[in-house]
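Why predict the complex rather than its parts? Because the way molecules touch one another can change local conformation, and only a joint prediction can capture that. The input here totals 1023 residues.
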Amino acid sequence: MPVGESLNTLSAGLILICSFAMVGTRQVQGVLRFFIVQSLLLAASSFLLGFDEHSIHLWALGIITIVAKVIVIPWILKRTLARELYVRREIEQTVNIPASLLLSLLLAVGAELLVGPLSSAMGNLVVQVNLPIGLACVLIGAYSLAARREAVPQLIGILAMENGAFLAGIAIAAELPLIAELAVAIDVVLIVVIVGLLTRDIKRTIGTTEAAGLSELKEEPESWR
Amino acid sequence: MTRTILYNLIQILFVLVFAPLYSGVLSRFKEIVQSKRGPSIFQPYRDLWKLFHKDEVISSETTWIFRITPYLVFITPIFVTVLIPVLTDYPLAFAFMGDMLAGGFFLGLGGFFAALAAVDTGNPYGPMGASRTRMVGFLAEPVFMIVFFTVSFVAQSTIPFIVQQKWIENAGAFFSPAHVLLLAAFLMLILAEGGRIPVDNPAGHFELAMIDESKGLEFSGRGAALMKWGGQMKFLVLACIFLNVLLAPWGLAQGLEIMQILSAVPLILIKILLFAILLVSIETSLAKLRLFRISEFLGAAFIISVTAMIVSIFVGS
Amino acid sequence: MALIAVVVTPLVAAFLCWLPPIRKIAWHVTVFLSCVEFALAVVVSAGVIARGSVIGVSGWFEADGLAALVILIVSFVCALAAVFSGGYMSQQKGHEDRLWWFYSMYNLLVFALVVVPALAEPNLVWVGVELVTLFSVLLVSYENTVGALEAAWKFSVLTIMGAPIALLGFLVLFWAYRTGVGHHPETWEALRASASSMSPALLKLSFLLVFVGFGAKTGFAPMHTWLPDAHSQAPTPICAVLSGVKTTVPLYVILRFLGILLGRPEVHIGGFMIVMGLISVGIAAFLLLQVRDYKRMFAYSTVEHMGIILTAAGLATRASDFGSVSQMLNHSITKSLCFYVAGAILMTLETREIKSIRGLLRISPFEGAALLFCSLAIAGAPPFPIFLSEFSILGSGVQAGHPVVVTILATLIVIAFVGLMMQVNRMVFGKPIGPPRRVEIPRTCRVAIVMAAIPVAVLGVYIPAPLYHLLNLAAQQLGGR
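Output of the joint prediction:
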């Protein structure tokens, strides 16, 4: 295996581990930290592939990723949600951590089963690695959204899913028009701004960001309550 | 043939001689990092010397298990030594008698008897330590297995002497995720198996918090010396597996000449020294985990090893 | 040119509402430009009817039959919602100084809703759908109450979660296009034309990912839970937009894939769509039986109708496709009417609970009659347009040889009908409870209700020839045979 592809595979593996780590971390700040590491790895992967394939798009994507996800998003989160990040430490969750990790593993294997045959029939080595791992990150992110009952980790979970999609994207859609990439980046920042503001409002009005505390709206006859 | 048997003996001698030194260096480094002076690096030799010259007291409540355990704990790392590359780059006489799995079984046998002996004494702390060691052990076992499976996927073999060549075929193989992730998982395993921070504190003197140490509380004299020496050898053997089999076979003797073997000794010692620095930096930057968080530590190791396996399957398919 | 104007007009409106000197008359600006928007949409539709497609910027902004239909629906519903919000929002106390903000966001939402069908480049369509979600999250939480924030939170988590999944789907689609066709600009039209040279497995994967991702935004069961929460808590004009068109727009993107898959007959997704559609209809139908809040009731009815549209599209015949797109149109206009009426009732009685409303016909004859009218229309009673389209869907199902599907669908529709009318019956007839109250609903709200009722009344008995033609063009895009 050539060094470039090998390094890309390594970075993909580490991205997957970051996804696991986000599921396995108890602290809000830890989750954010792993997310930053994951984004850096994603940028590294796209620089690597950009270097290998001489694609300016991938370089641009790497830079966008660093600017948006390593600099802007943590900055926004720290500005709007500093108390959430630093004061409260342990995250509530519905499934305990070892079980969550095992489920995430199953999801990763499931992702491989889903797209493995497809990618090995269709693509080169990079696709074979990035597509299943990207899908696995998307699925693990979705799971962590379901398991985590708090605003900030859920938000970061969404962004981690986005990372997974991009990991697959740099392998399969390297020549995506730049305008689409820019739009996507702006969109991601918008998500954070809006959801961050929303979280702050929730905090102000309700006093907690544990989504478990949000249970006013239900479809049950009163007798069931 | 006789020459390779001789080299095997040199390997055993190497492990026997340098195991106490290794643990002495480790503890000295740690003290220095923590701004203390610490004992001499030769202190473990003096401890062993002292223990060998003391009388052995064996409780009349114990059975033969208690009596043979020190010998088993002492002898099993030596068996493993003949299976792995400590000094040489090529297979020695007994290399094909067992693979990495067999090595794992040997080390596991010693641990098993140590646990039995701890229960055998009737000392309240012994069984507690034994049960905790078993807990760590049974959590570590799957990681060992996955590591071996992944190695066999990548190298098509589990014989340590063959595996070690696989990683340096080219730079791609060295940086392949299977390799890097395996290293990470195995390092975590070494920490757990060797009773190091963050799983266990080897320097702790508080019986209730002990995991590994409390099993040896009842041994005295020669028994205690053998247990201690065996433990040190086990740790050195694990380090050799990590450094020579899993990391890279750099510094090992290439040729059959006796001088090459002897010149490999300082190189390997330097390698182990660097590894000791790594270990010390890990140990001083982490705190000991609560007992019930150990499962998460090993869970992380498990996840990493499974990721290594999954990724190597992705690449292989 | 008209297509560009359609996209730009809401942006201009949003900007104007934001300008400090104009903030006071933000509503007037919004209403005026929404009407301009509707007129432009009619122009676009006329162009599509005449020439088959309208091109704004080639490769970026193009509209065919389906897109023109969605643009038409969006601009109609949004214009009336703008009219309605004049009276409704002025009644909301405590937010007077934020009204300009509301209208600015509202116009941005309209922009996002209209840009999705107008775009021809699929990857940008994804961005457009995301913008729709984001602006609607802000509008749902506008009132800043505990309930509104909870609803906005559930809404944003569930729907934004779909975004990366759909993004992966679009990337796979791009991949399939590049490996199959090569370096040509990717548009819906190009995808349709070259589907036969793309890998079927990739197309299927891409469809599945987009379906899951945008299905959450459309509100298919089991990802529908945000829908009733958001609809019960959002300001009523926003409910009309959310239910009427915000759900339709992601569905439009899903339906786009049908046209692409037409070139790949070996990829069978019809059965999958029918099953998913029937699940949505079924869950919604049974939830309608036990609902306690009339705004949630209409929300569940939205889930039901989305399921019906999906099922119809899954049947994949020419007739069922026609039923599907006309159901889309009919649902949007009828459901927005329902929410205007619900908003009026909320203004008068200040309760959302069904059980505390009795004898609405006596309290306020106008509202009682309107509620009866719109409920009959949305439940699918003859001679309303929804009855027509549902009937044609069922008929096409029988023709296509799916008697089991038709039976299940018909049964579920009847259950939903019974559930809905049971609740409405309780509210409209009987003796009023509680002290009598007289709150005049604002004139603009009445105007909006009457204007919205006109097409609902007319389309059931008479479909104008150009509209019929447009529906036919739209149905062609779904690729049924």
